[in-house]
Specification:
Helix content is 41%, strand content 15%. The chain contains 14 helices and seven strands.
Length: 317
């Protein structure tokens, strides 16, 4: 079965990228190609688009794009600097888009094991060839380790209760199915059921742990800054506070002068020249959220946040 995906904040991303017809762009999270196809429509004959993904279903979907300006490469976006460098394009990329997190087809396909609403195997791997899956974590990690995952990656108040319940049940028999795990977690977390499923935060945390998502994001941001051309744009869409905090902090750390610099007897131009290696980004506008019309069309857009930055060395548009 083919599962659809609606690209989030599409027009805002296109505006943020400030696409030049002859530019070179990178979509670090191809998914089902909604953003990539829109970028291609903006490019001229000399333009070029690279795309990365580690999900086999996404790579298969990319094969339907026969545009010679388009290249798809199997890779996690954490390796984008290596990929771009090997292609001889480091310092020449005019724009990078990173749509972080899970895609709708991954959630909607029960066989992938991401959803607590549909029964499937405890998998949650974005790269189906990876060794670590959710079943391994819930059946072999200690109670303390599970608690840390639920607390740090899911910000779950009752992380210890959920971890303890999992350990108690797995002692009877290994846990294998998503609905089985969701029932255990829901029973362990106090309070009546609400609009948000009780297992939401723990499932998010497991997915992040399985795919090392936060470490992947940090590496991708560093790599993006390394390969962008002067004036190149970086657009990052995140879907929860942990991701957005990392993006916001990265932009801040790379766009502000060191605290002591302002006390130096130098002009703005001299400060820029002196600290060019540390002040490498300029943020563009404020964080962007989906509007009411988009959320009505696609409820998953309600938690999306887009942040745009530009590699210094070009004029802000």
């Amino acid at each position: 079965m083919e599962y659809g995906h609606i690209p989030v904040l599409l027009n805002e991303c296109l505006e943020g990228l400030q696409i030049k017809p002859d530019g070179i762009y990178l979509d670090g999270t191809f998914g089902r190609g909604g953003h990539s196809r829109a970028i291609l429509r903006k490019l001229g004959p000399a333009g070029r688009l690279l795309a990365l993904d580690r999900d086999e279903a996404a790579l298969a979907a990319a094969q339907t794009i026969t545009d010679p300006r388009f290249t798809i490469i199997k890779s996690p976006f954490s390796r984008l600097e290596t990929v771009v460098t090997e292609l001889g394009l480091a310092g020449r990329i005019d724009g990078i888009l990173l749509d972080i997190g899970i895609s709708s087809p991954q959630v909607d396909d029960p066989s992938r094991g991401f959803s607590f609403e549909h029964d499937g195997p405890l998998d949650m791997r974005m790269d189906q060839g990876a060794a670590l899956d959710a079943a391994t974590i819930v059946n072999s990690y200690s109670e303390d380790a599970l608690t840390a995952i639920f607390k740090d990656y899911g910000e779950e108040r009752f992380a210890r209760k959920a971890a303890r319940a999992i350990c108690r049940e797995r002692d009877k028999a290994p846990l294998q199915r998503t609905l089985q795990l969701a029932r255990i977690i829901s029973a362990a977390i106090p309070g009546a059921p609400g609009p948000k499923h009780k297992a939401t935060r723990c499932f998010q945390a497991l997915r992040i742990a399985v795919n090392a998502e936060l470490d992947e994001l940090k590496a991708a941001l560093s790599g993006a800054l390394a390969v962008l051309a002067p004036g190149g744009r970086l657009c990052v869409i995140s879907f929860h506070s942990l991701e957005d905090r990392i993006v916001k902090t990265f932009y801040k750390e790379n766009s502000e002068l060191p605290a002591f610099a302002r006390s130096l007897p130098l002009t703005e131009q001299e400060l820029d020249a002196r600290f060019a290696d540390s002040v490498r980004l300029s943020t563009v506008g404020k964080a962007i959220k989906a509007g009411a019309e988009e959320v009505a069309r696609n409820v998953r857009a309600r938690s999306a946040t887009l942040r745009v930055a530009q590699r210094r060395g070009g004029s802000l548009c």
